[in-house]
Records
---
Amino acid sequence: MLDESIQELASRSFARIAAAASPEALEAVRVDAVGRKGALAEISKGMGKLSPEERKRIGQVLNAAKQQLEAALDARKQEFDEAALRARLDAEWVDLTLPAPGPRRGHLHPITRIQRELEDLFVSLGFTVLDGPEVETEYYNFDALNIPPDHPARDMQDTFWLDGGNLLRTHTSPVQVRGMERLGPPLRMIAPGRVFRNESVDASHEHTFYQLEGMMIDRDVSVAHLLYFMKTLLTAIFQRDVTVRLRPGYFPFVEPGFELDIQCLICGGPGCPVCKHSGWVELLPCGLVNPNVLRISGIDPEEWGGFAFGLGLTRLVMMRYGIDDIRHLQGGDLRFLEQF
Amino acid sequence: MKFSYNWIREMIPGLTEAAGPLERLITMKTAECEGIEETGALLAEACAARVESVEPIPGSHNVKAIVDAGALGMKTVVCGAPNCRPGLLTAYVPLDKKVVHGIESDGMLASGAELGINRDHDGIVELGTLEGCAPDAAIEIDNKSITHRPDLWGHHGMAREVAAILGLELTDPANLELLPQGPAAIKIQIEDLDLCPRYSALVFENVTVQPSPLWLQYRLTAIGLNPINNIVDMTNFVMAELAQPMHAFDADLLHGDTIFIRPAKPGEPFRALNGEDYTLDPSNLAIADSAGAIALAGVIGGGDSAIGAKTTRVVLESANFQASSVRKTSSAIKLRTDASMRFEKAQDPVNTVRGLARAVELLREISPGIRLVGGLADQMREMAAPPAIELSLEWLERKLGRATEPAQVRRILESLAFGVTEVQPGVFSVTVPSWRATKDVASKDDLVEEVGRMLGYDSITPRAPLVPAAVPPGNPARRFQHDVRNLFVDNGFTEVYNYSFLSEESVRAFGFDPAEHIRVTNPIASNQELMRASLLPGIWKNVTGNAKHRESFRLFEIGLEIHRREQGLPEEIPHLVAALYSRHEGGIFELKRVAECLLPGARTVPAEARGYEHPARAAAVHWKGAVAGRLFELHPRFVETGRAAVLDLDLRLVESLSGDRTKYRPIRRYPSSAFDLSVIAPLREHAGQLEAAIASFAGPLMEAIQFVRQYAGPPLVEGTKSVSFRLTVGSPERTLSSDEITAIRTTIILRMRDLGYELRV
């Protein structure tokens, strides 16, 4: 008789478990069926009257029914949990095509970008990066670079003069002198920075622009070494093999002095409008450091020699990005700056 | 400077290279060419022709002319020139026939300007002969590239280069045998032989002043000089040929028999050829007669003694002046002339008499009947030959990075007129020609350049130097600035570069004193005359400019503030200025957040607002015990719509306080405890002050204090607010007991009450 009640209770409970519409309903079935005061517990109370053998058997039947019911309850509960999780996840749908809040990344100035690239390049070649003041003395800007007062070479650079007799540096070359004074030979240095020339401004001329000065002083430094560094530098800058040539150029702080041309990157040599049909583009002045310049900075030119060059950073930036108007660089217009 | 190809070819009989290839050779070996300009193209076809008859054309100012064009035969042309008259010898140019006023015109009669001979286009050319007039090419050399080469300011010098490049013979247009012997007809007195190392002169009589022959006019026109009259043209011709500037005085307009070369007297008046009056001072070297200045040495001649139509006697000056003296005078009176441009390059004193010899030859041709009076007047300082320079092949190789044969070195140097002696194997003793010795060539490195350029730098193979590997000294300041740039860019700021110049107006707008700024004495424009002592005016301009296109944006600049110092160079302080603009809401707290990324733990301490700052939204930024800058909103006066929050930091100071001083501390083993406190304070009490006060009362066991929220409104009394903080307390040695925590809390509450603050408990 007990067997029957257990059987009946079990099948009734299974049906209720299957029919439970909510976790709460399921919980009610659990309480009714296998709870401490549930139906199975009720049945087990009547076991005292049974013979030991029968008690043992019925006990086993009860246990089996309990385990089955609990397993069914757990399985059903897990179904509810999974459904609930699914529902929650579904409710948490977001439109990931919406933009992220907060500001977008800003933009480095194009001159900063190229300048850093060059700084990293030269540091990797063992050069140190030096700074010098933008307001300079006549001595550093001219005299110490072998450009004495009343030398016509002073005309090559229209100078802004300041009250008090100082001037705005017309090139980054004074940092050569400061570098030699501070660090002495051997020396490998570059000096990127802002320079000033008293020129009227138009699409290709600025009174404020950027240069990168470079200098190497060691025991034996030759034109062959200068050519090597220039070729290495320019190959890295333009990310392709470049052909360079030197031709005579006059700058009082170098002797011999050169203009360095690169073979036109647009036409590759036959001539085009960019290179004015010459096949070559003038890129930077350079040369072996004039012995007078070494001597002025206390370096013996019999013992030490060097090369120096001046790269037009602004011009390089314009070439790299195809900027057609130099005035944009200091115009502060976001429509320009955000392109970089 | 322009060089006539025909002129150069006249001095190099063997020259076969055309102007184009020659230009490239000169560029590679000597000086930069900027292009070639064809001149006198019509001269290829032109021929001399005689106007036989002229008939007016009804209803036109043109005439119908019949001309005898020699070998081309008789031609009928329509001509509009007022000087077209029978018997005139002019130039005929054959062109395609065309009908003008119903008359078939076969070719044209040309003006001097049309032919390129001179600038005369008032009528057709009136000529004796077209001989010496052929199409020419003017090669333009960049003046900067011959700054160091006094000799290249004349055709002969350039011809010497060309001859050396091509291995050709060079002829010398100056024949010193033409100089007269005997006592001079004029005396010369040089006061300072440093300022005037040499003064040479000749006197001529029976001079005819007239237009120059066409070949001479053409030479000058081809290189951009203006023909004036035969005497003046001759001086310009010699200057363009030999680089020796000359000046001709009308001898009858000079006073006395002596030419004085002396410093000008203070306030000495001088009327120049250009019609300008100058007041001289002793820094100017004057050429004077007994009555006063007749020329400004090396710069310009005087108007009162100028050559004119009536001139019959001429004193011809060919002198040498100190380069820097000429340059000083020329820049002081702001007058650059063809003469001063040459003298300031340090001309060769040997050249004065060469110029005079060339002049004698030319004047005989262009002023028929001219006679020399007396011998050469010539005063000079003693001229020592420059010392020989020793050049070794070893030095040459060390500098060029390639080996050179001794014979090659000798050939190159000798082709450029250097004297070469091999004093021992591989070592040369080199003498420098006078025209290269004034400033240009003085050391063995100068000779390296001579040999190198003539060898061709393309003969040098690039080679990596053998140098020890070494870590280069760092540049922490620059590196720091790059880090700051990254931080601001990552937080949405875009970098701008502004000029270092400011206008007085913008400086005043910010309440700065223009007198404290360094002033540019020669500004590019009157609104760019002050050096920026603040980056704010620049960023302000960026803000107002971009606000026209954008609702909101973020900008920053890193640049130098330039501050006047009592002595020496000014102080240049790197600053960061960042601006956050929005048309709708203020962004000062967002800017503060970014500032705290750079300056962790910085405090913004309310400060009295400056004129350009929003009076209720301005603070000083305190960091590590120093005032690092300001955080504020621009005063609404400066921003028409919207709000601009600005951060201005002294990066030199910030960098000096930065640096990685991180030191590890063990993680605490005992748990900390936290509790909240809410302070009732007047509405405008600063939370920062409350926080500082609480922290100061919390004792050594406080680990952290953090602002939680503030609230104003019911049930609080109007005009007050409640500000809540969370305090974390703990000890590295033990877990605090609840009694200890309560004690800390109570102390704070009591001490705050002492200060007059109620706490919501």
---
Amino acid sequence: MRTERALVGAGKAVAVAAILVWSLLPIAFIAVSSFKPGQDIFAVPPKLLFTPTLKHYAELWHSWGAFFAGLANSAIVTAGATALAVLTSTIAGYAYARHAGRWMQAGMAGLVIVRLIPPIVVTLPLFPIVNALRLNDTHLVLIVLYATFFVSLGTILMRTFIEQIPRELDEAASIDGAGRLTILWQVIVPLAAPGILAVSVFVAVYAWNEFLFAFVFTATRAKTAPLVISEMIGSIDGVDYGILFAASTVQLVPVLLFVIFMNRHLVAGLTAGATKG
Amino acid sequence: MEATKPIRVWPMLAPVHALVLGVIVLPSLYVVWLSLSASTFGQAPVYVGLANYLKVLADPAFRQALLNTVLLVLVAVHVELLLGLGMALLFASGLPFRRFLLVAVLAPYAVSEVTAVVMWRFLFDPDAGPVTLALRAWGLPTLDWAYEPSHALVLIGLLTVWLHLPFTFVILYAARLAVPGELYEAARIDGATRWQAFRRVTMPLLMPAIVIALLFRYIFAFRLFSEAWLLTKGGPARSTEVVAIYLYQEAFTFNAFGPAAATSWIMVVASLLLAGLYALVLRRSGASHAH
């Protein structure tokens, strides 16, 4: 019995080690290697002890100014898309949580079905329209696209979270003379904060990392960081892994910290999104 | 509150529905018209019936892309399910530093496809990648992904599993935590072995979550674009294209809007069919479990 328990414990330890290696090693590899002198990046076996250098970051700064412009673009687009998606989903989610009826059911079904349309499908018809409106290569087009592809899930999630808030609170505020927007802002929003945070995590991570729409709809002015990194991968003078690792690390660290910080909301959102949507 | 007139509700719904209609629904319907016509830049569309669909379905490049996509989806999603299920059961069995481990497992969720491609390209670099060198040192076969299409697909599959395992894991882990502990207590008192408890208690109760995780992942994996594009651009010689890359190439490289539109609707219909299947299975499992 004791040996069996020891075996189970050892098996678990091996499994946990495998999970950590799988999840974290690829991330650790590029983050650590971005500080290695060039010749140490490909050292065999991988060098754990090395003199850290900021050389690759300096080179990135000097030769890839477009990357830092891309980071700024990513930040603008992420903030805009998150604000737009959260605002519209919260208002719609509130309406869906508090009103029933055939039209409301149809609207909700529409939001569920819309999630089945792959984003690449709309690139073809939107490309000429975006050009005709002279919105090509602007922050606005990415903000609208990113927000739109998450408002359906956002609304579904917000409805789920707001449904758990007792209606009596709305009614009490309403008797006190509060209007609908006042009720939404002062009563619902504070209590539905976990839902708002969950939706924010989804949209912000998506907007910060997205590649396809940025690739199709931006060229120079609104180019986001992932797009610049993809150009580094494909640049003619071969892949300079040191600079590539530095850029990837800079792109990754903010969103990784965000996900770590918001992990509870992410888990709650994923769970609610999968079972309700 | 229920009695409020619709006139007071619709302004609250308008922004979301306007975005969805304007950006997704109407453009998708326009794609239906495009898929039934012949057109390219600066040329008015002419109705051609199902010719584009027939052309796409007969195109060897499309068939290759479809085959690649189906293989990738089937293998990657099921590998993901097995890993996610194993991890969910491991976590539920009690682990020290559970929160830390959970956050570690979630980490790839934060990684963009582009950064993930940077990582895995490096790890599997044919000349100097750490994983390649380790495999070689142990006398194991390495991935010659830059030249060998099937090896490239394996690497794309690995990347996909790595990026999306957090999603599958969280769904299954949440479902496992929702199974009441008394059920295992009862099974133990009845003399059930661990395996029997797993077969008779865990699996039936996890089934709805497994179906949900699988179908979400089928639908999303079927759209796969960035990982494959960034790793191989569909090459060499269109051998590693997936359906979304085929669509992109038809639309933006060859300006063949009709076939691209037809491919779009083939993707939408495939998603709808999968979702229909999902609704059917859920209704059935819902009937037997009153979940």
